[in-house]
Amino acid sequence: MIIKPRIRGFICTTAHPRGCAANVDAQIAYVTSQGGVAGGPKRVLLVGASSGYGLASRIVAAFGCEAATLGVSFEKAPRDSRTASAGWYNNRAFEARARARGLYVETLDGDAFSDAVKQQAIETIAADLGQIDLLVYSLASPVRQHPRTGQLHRAVIKPLGESFHVKTLNVDKAIVQTVDLAPADEAETAATVAVMGGEDWEFWIDALAGAGLLADGCRTVSYTYIGSELTWPIYWHATLGKAKEDLDRAARAINAQLGDIGGRAQVAVLKAVVTQASAAIPVVPLYNALLFDVMKTQGSHEACIDHIYRLFGTALYGGSPEVDEAGRLRLDAWELAAEVQDEMRRRWPLVSTGNLGELADLEGYRADFLKLFGFGIEGVDYDEDLDPALSEL
Ligand code: NAD
User: Fold this and answer.
1) How many CB atoms lie within 10 A of CB 386?
2) What is the pLDDT of residues 146-186, one digit of tens each?
3) Residue 43 β-bridge partners
4) Max Cα separation, the chain?
5) 91 CB less than 6 Å from ligand 1?
């Protein structure tokens, strides 16, 4: 079949196998061109490994640190005439390249929140790796079935306290619209914390520590976003921010637990990039389209892979981490730099459908979005008749 993008709101329901592979190749090429990460981990478990920041972390671990990687993700295999999800193709492409490099690689596709998947990971690590030196927790999910209570929690993306009337970008139609977002109630906020907060990260550490699979000096990192006051009403001061605050609590609890083995848990504050998860948050696409233009103009723009390479090379394993008062690794200083945010504050009230092309990098945003699904990548033949079940990538 000829595979074309089919965009529905903020997702694309098709993915291109060769395009996804090309996207993985480009990220590997970037890491290879930058050279190795000195003192990096050798055995890494990544929860949320198939796309966005988790995939970039897996690529840096493997191709920057020569690490064996076990990835956990929740992706859809191809079925009948439907393509697989992009992450499924990303996983196949990554596995082939890591194996060709002589690196151990294994991927578990299933619900990372479940005890069953944790048990599978434990058995795989015990049999194949012995222990791990790093757990990267990079999950982004709208729902979580709690493994103890069986309750299905659904995260909501809502402000707290009062409604938020704000501009957003309809990427598909290239128009700036306003939306009214009603505040979350207590139950919705608690559900969002249950899904995107730190409890599951702690459950992973409990399970791995209980099985004796954390090596001495083992590190673990979970990713968060803080951003600026332009997005605070829908992010940091909203339901998602409450969940992310809970990661800080979990990091403290895990640190106390890892003391015996000299281990360390940290939350890393990352910059805004286009991923499947971030595309779903109202306001963020408009913020990102403006931000990319400002940061590209100022020469400080980074893609996912550049940013994670810097995280590993300077903060997690390098000697110059920037750490804030809460103990978080701060990688977002370039995004939050006064010259970037002053320009963002100037443009924000001005931006409208008519001047999007002038004030925002709409084309860059769209290109990044399509790339997530393997589309719009140079050198890929999009007229090729492909079997969507193609797994040799
Ligand atoms: P993403 O949508 O690209 O990736 C999410 C990953 O989670 C995928 O690998 C997916 O398969 C996996 N996943 C989802 N539900 C799962 C489940 N039940 N079981 C197993 N795997 C599951 O998202 P992303 O934007 O890379 O987000 C990763 C982390 O980075 C999140 O914590 C997010 O808050 C954080 N972060 C993102 C940004 C941004 O701008 N995108 C900025 C800062 C921090």
Assistant:
1) 16
2) 999 999 999 999 999 999 999 999 988 899 999 999 999 99
3) 68
4) 59
5) no
Closest residue by CA, ligand 1 atom 21: 73
Number of domains in the chain: 1
Atom 24 (ligand 1) nearest CA: 52
CATH of the domain at 62: 3.40.50.720
Question: Would residue 55 count as lying in a domain?
Answer: yes
Structure-derived torsion over alpha carbons of residues 38, 41, 46, 50, reported in degrees to the nearest 10: 40
Q: How far apart are CA 310 and CA 251, in angstroms?
A: 21
Rounded distance from Cα 276 to ligand 1 centre (Å): 8
Q: What is the Cα–Cα distance from 263 to 216, expressed in whole angstroms?
A: 7
Percentage of the chain beyond pLDDT 90 is 95
**Residues 213-244 as b or e (16 or more Cβ within 10 Å = b):** bbbeebbbbbbbbbbbebbebbbbbbbbbbbb
Q: What is the per-residue pLDDT for 232?
A: 96
**Which residue segment(s) compose the domain that 210 sits in?**
10-141+188-275+300-333
Query: 9 falls in which pLDDT band (50, 70, 90)?
Result: confident
Query: Which protein residue has the closest C-alpha to ligand 1 atom 18?
Result: 111
Residue 369 lies in a domain: no
Q: pLDDT > 70: what percent of the chain?
A: 100
Domain contains 353: no
Residue 318: its pLDDT value, please?
Answer: 84
Residue 356 lies in a domain: no
Cβ–ligand 1 distance for 74 under 6 Å, the answer: yes
Chain-centroid distance of CA 347 in Å reads: 27
Query: 385: CA distance to ligand 1 center in Å?
Result: 31
Confidence of residue 31 (pLDDT cuts 50, 70, 90): very high
What's the token pair of residue 262?
Answer: 């000299």
